[in-house]
Each structure stands twice: as C-alpha cells, then as structure tokens.
Specification:
Layout: H1 2-18, E1 54-63, E2 66-74, E3 81-87, E4 95-103, H2 114-117, E5 119-126, H3 127-130, E6 135-139, E7 144-148
Parallel strand pairs: 4-6
Antiparallel strand pairs: 1-2, 2-5, 3-4, 6-7
Length: 149
C-alpha cells in the first residue's frame, strides 16, 4: 500500500513538472478561444437531381410515433436510382410538400415495361412533423399526388 502511494505521488510530481509541455495530458486540446460567428440564415443544399417524370402512387401508413410516407415514381426509362422525397419549404396552411427527386442512369438504358421502371421511396414523418398537417403532397415533373386526413 505504501509503494502505491509513493508511485502515485511520483507520477503527480512528474506531471506537475511538465507544466505547459505537450507531455501533460491536460494540455493536449489546449484552451478555448472566442470565435466570431456570422448569422447567414439557413443553409440550403442545392438539389441537382431532376424530378421523377410521374408520381404513380402515394400511400401513408400510420406507425407508432408517426407515419411512413411511400411514393412510387415512374421514370421514362430503366436505370434511375437514388430517389428521395425532398421537403419543399415548411408546413404551410396545413400542407406538407415534397418533391420526388431521382438520379438519372449513368449510361443509356432501354424503356421496357412500366413495372420494371418503378422506383419506390419512403420517408418517416414524426408525430411532431405531422401536427397540424391535413394534406401531404408529392410532386413530379408531370403530375403531383396528395393524401389527406
């Protein structure tokens, strides 16, 4: 027990001797400095994906804590990918608006059947996001679909 105390005191004395050096673990991250922040407002990401050509179906399923909004899009050819429902603005007048955005194929592809071109995307909306909302609208390039409570 005595040796443990002696070793602990020796380590403490050694660290105290390090003072402001980089060997002292209390100095590894340095002190804080004041920085100036600019209030530029809201940062908005630029969406480069085009709208899906047609929104073929729209469905909402209630789940604990919110709802799952599912949209089926129909692009003009096969190979479209990375689809998403992108929120447009805030909920205004009890309506949530989304755009169905999707990446085009990297190489030319065939048209084929409508079923083979379908792209299904979804998003979970919390009860808080749905509070006061009576209509949800999803827009494509040629049409839009809406679900109401």
């Amino acid at each position: 027990m005595g040796r443990t105390w002696i070793a602990a005191l020796a380590c403490a004395a050694l660290l105290a001797g390090c003072g402001q050096s980089r060997l002292n673990p209390f100095n590894w991250f340095g002190g804080s400095t004041e920085t100036v922040t600019l209030d530029t407002g809201r940062v908005v990401a630029v969406e480069t994906r085009p709208l899906v050509e047609q929104v073929a179906a729209l469905d909402i399923a209630r789940k604990p804590g919110g709802a799952i909004l599912t949209a089926t899009g129909l692009p003009p050819v096969q190979g479209f990918w990375n689809g998403a429902l992108v929120p447009v603005g805030d909920a205004a007048d009890g309506r949530l608006d989304f755009e169905f955005r999707i990446e085009p194929p990297l190489q030319p592809t065939r048209v084929s059947t409508a079923v083979s071109r379908e792209v299904i995307v979804g998003i979970f909306l919390t009860d808080r996001q749905l509070a006061g909302v009576s209509e949800i609208r999803v827009s494509g390039a040629r049409n839009a679909r809406a679900v109401r409570r």
